[in-house]
Amino acid sequence: MSNTVLMQGNEACVEGAIAAGMRFFAGYPITPSTEIAECSALRLPQVGGHFIQMEDELSSMAAVIGASVAGVKSMTATSGPGFSLKQENIGYAALAEIPCVIVDVQRSGPSTGLPTSPSQGDVMQARWGTHGDHPVIALSPSTVSETFHLTIRAFNLAEKYRTPVILLMDEIIGHLREGFTFPDPGTLSIENRKVSRNPETLRKPYYLEAGELIPAMAAFGEGARYNITGLVHDDDGFPTSSPETAETLCTRLMEKISQNLSDIVTYEEIMTEDADIVIVCYGGTMRSAMTAVEMAREAGIKVGIFRPVSIWPFPEGPLFALSKRVKQLVVAEHNYGQILLEIQRIVKNNCAISFIGKINGTVITPNEIVDKLKEVN
Questions:
Q1: pTM, to two decimals
Q2: pLDDT over 80 (residue 29)
Q3: How distant, in Å, are the alpha carbons of 31, 128, 288, 321, 353 from that of 318?
Q4: Distance of alpha carbon 62 from alpha carbon 310, whole angstroms
Q5: Is residue 250 included in any domain, yes or no?
Q6: Is the peptide bond before 32 cis (omega within 30 degrees of 0)?
Q7: What is the DSSP string of 93-117?
Q8: I need a surface site. Which of 91, 168, 184, 196 has the fewest CB within 10 A?
Q9: 314-342: per-residue pLDDT in tens?
Q10: Contact 41, 10 (CB under 8 A)
Q11: Helix runs in 215-330, H state only
């Protein structure tokens, strides 16, 4: 018998995290992500996990890193201002290769902005928020059910590639309520980090087997003491100023993502087979776009949707191929054109590109998208 409930997106995030094996959450309340902290505080003790409210966002990220190093799948959640404060330690996790999940339920900004209003203004911050060249994976759900499953995927990717993964939600999906049917746990694919058991390499936290890009990881407290630093480091985890070592390390960090795009990149195409115009959207904006496509089709406009599920890395190849066979792309997002810039870079002159966006805290409506479609048709 199925277990179907009415569930909020933020709640589904917590349930997905627990299903993935998350047993530690550290965070600081911030609208519109606070329900993730509240639900984690309730649910984690029920499954033998731990919740802690930290004094701020920077320390929350530090606690998550520490728990992960101790061998526990860990997560934090925040929104725009808190996401900014976490960036220093997100960069630390990227360089030190600490798997963890950061949920950003985006809200209108800048600064304190409109705390309860929808936005997708953190897209570029998710990619470039921490300084330097660093690997990043960011996923964006469009339904409550997908939030559950993408949270699991976020943990799987973090564990597999030893990297922080960002679940880039928005207020629309975070506070949306939909019917959700819990899947049979036996049907879920759960990945765990590769653990080092070799006593000769336990003290070398970044030792690589021949041909590997991702080192195995040993948990603190399992008999080995090793060094971790936010500085460029050697295989032993100790700082080094060697240009050769720095080149090797930083290149490998990027390549463990760039050489596995076929495993990481995901996207969705809807009714693009005969489309003259394609709406490019993601996250909560997808909801209005779906209705707009139905309305436009009824009016005789051949419209489809291209939705990146992995915002970073972006599905460049599929979008480039699609742009060569359509007349127009209409980019719809709740910001001033962040993914628009990426699409212009990718598509070049293959087809025309138009934009519809909002930064005033209100939702882009289906009628507004249809008006834009009629304008460019």
A1: 0.96
A2: yes
A3: 35, 23, 23, 5, 16
A4: 25
A5: no
A6: yes
A7: HHHHT--EEEEEEEEE-STT-EEEE
A8: 184
A9: 999 999 999 999 999 999 999 999 999 99
A10: no
A11: 243-258, 261-264, 285-298, 316-323
